[in-house]
Design brief:
Strand content: 25-35%
Structural class: alpha+beta
CATH class of the largest domain: Alpha Beta
Helix content: 25-40%
Largest sheet: 9 strands, mixed
Number of helices: 11
Length: 402
């Protein structure tokens, strides 16, 4: 079905960031806001294929957009959940040092968290850790009381309802195929018909780089999909983990390493292993998209990253295919874990922006262009910080509209 009417701003992508951006636009008084989503329903990918953790910003570089937006975002998200009666829990997190060589980095992270404005941070001794998590073995830990868990799917449904009540048009089943610019308007060519808009906002997540290319603004970074594979503790083993238990991030490696995450709907996830996905929406090993695979496999940035971190990449692959290695990694945190305590869990795909140099883009990356804003990289904590991120993007889009 065609939608010939011209609107002020079209948001491409109906994930949590796109929905939050539309919300911020209409709350700022902008009329004529449209969201275009390629799936039959909103929030079908990264927004609902994640750990469900509310991140407070402990490890982010002070002064970075991540640190700023995480602090503001978790406060705003908690308030939104309370107002909309969305199930959430501020259960707290432990970041543990399992070896004496990690204690210096643990102290550095504690200072970084304090610099980022986190409240109630404490360095715990092994005995104090056991009072909170009796089965965790470590040399020391940081207690992060502000972090928690939430149902991000429920958050997206609440944003969808609020947007539609406010007059936002949400066009579902409309994959964007072309974005020609005609005079002062964009022609948004989709599988559901052609739309027109004065400004476009690209919140396409896993396909953000391709949408930017369609708009004539190819970014320097390319999206490379990494699949995060989880296993789940069996019900009789869930007592081994009470809260969120994370290791210290490894220096120079962009992934957190395997950890334990309580889920808001019940259960405890263990993982993830981080491996290259064979499709941008490849949630299992059997899903292959030749275009996605060729683009990733021929991208010099991925090869440079792999060469730089070959040992860690090999380890992640081994943990993905070898259950014993995966369990061995978990036992560094909880020594009582056994292979029989686990069964297959969920998985998600992370849209990671990678530069040709092989460096990962760690912070949020948005590119302002003529009558367009492209959100090229929106990594964790994008879900937690989505309301704050949406306001940032909305401000940029409104400047383009003026």
């Amino acid at each position: 079905m065609a939608h010939p009417s011209t609107v002020g701003i079209t948001v491409i992508g109906g994930g949590i960031v796109g929905l939050a951006t539309a919300r911020a636009l209409v709350r700022s008084g902008i009329e004529g806001v449209r969201v275009v989503e390629k799936e039959a329903a909103v929030a079908q990918h990264q927004s609902t294929h994640n750990s469900g953790v509310l991140h407070a910003g402990l490890q982010y570089r002070p002064g970075s957009a991540k640190a700023r937006l995480a602090r503001e975002g978790i406060r705003r998200m908690t308030e939104f959940c309370q107002e909309n009666r969305i199930t959430h829990e501020i259960c707290g997190k432990l970041v543990v040092a399992t070896d004496a060589s990690e204690l210096g980095r643990l102290d550095d992270m504690l200072e970084r968290g304090r610099a980022n404005g986190l409240e109630g941070l404490r360095r715990l001794s092994p005995g104090e850790v056991r009072e909170i998590e009796p089965h965790v073995d470590c040399r020391a830990a940081i207690r992060v009381p502000e972090e928690g868990i939430v149902d991000f799917g429920a958050v997206c449904r609440a944003l969808e309802r609020e947007n539609e009540r406010a007059g936002v048009e949400i066009v579902r089943g409309a994959e964007v195929r072309a974005l020609p610019r005609e005079g002062r308007e964009w022609r948004v060519v989709t599988t559901a018909g052609e739309l027109t808009s004065r400004v476009i906002v690209n919140c396409a997540g896993l396909f953000a780089d391709r949408v930017a290319e369609l708009a004539g603004s190819p970014p320097k970074a390319r999206i490379v999909p990494f699949r995060g594979e989880y296993r789940r503790l069996r019900p009789e083993s869930e007592h081994l983990v009470r809260h969120l238990v994370y290791p210290l991030p490894e220096p120079g490696f962009p992934f957190l390493g395997v950890h334990f995450t309580r889920r808001i709907g019940g259960g405890v996830d263990a993982g993830p292993s981080a491996v290259l996905a064979f499709a941008r929406e490849g949630y299992d090993r059997s899903t292959v998209n030749l275009l996605d695979l060729i683009q990733a496999g021929t991208f010099v940035g991925l090869w440079r990253f792999t060469g730089r971190h070959h040992r860690m990449v090999a380890r992640e692959l081994a943990q993905s295919f070898d259950r014993r290695r995966f369990v061995r990694a978990l036992r560094r945190l909880v020594p009582e874990i056994r292979a029989e305590d686990l069964h297959p869990g969920s998985s998600g795909v992370r849209a990671q922006a990678v530069l040709p140099s092989g460096d990962f883009v760690h912070d949020f990356l948005w590119v302002d262009d003529s009558a367009a804003v492209h959100v090229v990289n929106a990594p964790s904590p994008a879900a937690t910080a989505s309301l704050a991120i949406g306001e940032e993007i909305a401000r940029r889009a409104m400047r383009q509209l003026a």
